[in-house]
Amino acid sequence: MNWQTQLNNSFIWILTALLSVTVELVITALLLKRTQFGKKFWLISKPCFENSNKYKTLGLILLLLLFILLEVRISVLNTFFFITGCTAHCKIKTPMRFGFSQPLMQCW
Questions:
Q1: Are residues 21 and 72 in contact, defined by beta-carbon separation less than 8 angstroms?
Q2: 44-79 pLDDT, tens per residue?
């Protein structure tokens, strides 16, 4: 795995995912706003979106989404790295246990 390529791809992936999640979140919020739950939720959260706090609240929501997507991307890359790194050094053996043939992976 080429980490430089993955680093460049990760930046594009995070921006694309952040944009799509933001659009989906806005559409969902607009649809939920018409429900009884949405009306009650908007009544409670309305002070957060007043003029003085609007940009701070939206910025914190976007920052939270960015951190979640960054954690997902790092987790996926680490999983891919450890799976390919371990299986490159592993040999699959098939020992006999209790009369059944079970594959066993031995690393290093």
A1: no
A2: 988 888 888 899 999 999 999 999 999 999 888 888
